[in-house]
Amino acid sequence: MFNARRVMGRIAAGGPEAPTSLVPSRDNNNRNRRLAPGSRTGEAHTLTKTTSEANREIAFKLSNNLPRLLQEFYRDYDRRVLRGIAERGYSDIRPSHSQVLSNLGTGSVRVTELAERAKVTQQAMGKLLKELERLGYVDRAIDSSDKRAKEIRFTERGLQLVADALEVVDEVRAHYVQKIGARELDDLEQRLRQAVDRLELDYLPESWADQN
Fold it and tell me: Which intervals of the chain are annotated as region Disordered (predicted)?
């Protein structure tokens, strides 16, 4: 039978140390501290896991939303159109040139109006026009009504680019119809137009708006 008085007497007399079952060793304390629920180490592990989950949720929301979906759709569309144009001999056309090509129309327009349509500065538009003029797609002439201003219009090569680009656009749409379905694609476009109209977003020049 265990005799506590005898054990305490041995300790007081400098006898053998108390049994490890009574006096936990430093190693045992460390082990218990590591395994104890609610310890700092356990809390850190839980906190790290929670933070990791929160970060994944944030990343998912940032990459899986309407703006991102529209952006990816646009990138795919733009990439296919540019590739089709390049295959028709217009390999010198860059993505930034679309700011001019999609806003110029078949008439003539001043640089200020063209920059406003594209929602860029006149300086940025002037740089793009210089590139396209050097490539032979546009021509800049003095405005007959204002000698200080210049009118921008397509050259014959530019008009041919427009005609070929329209064919490429039809081909790209046909690809989407095959992948998505004609009804689904028409419905998507119609719903986007309704959303843009209700949000009162300007995506067409005023002179073109009535033709839509």
Answer: 1-51
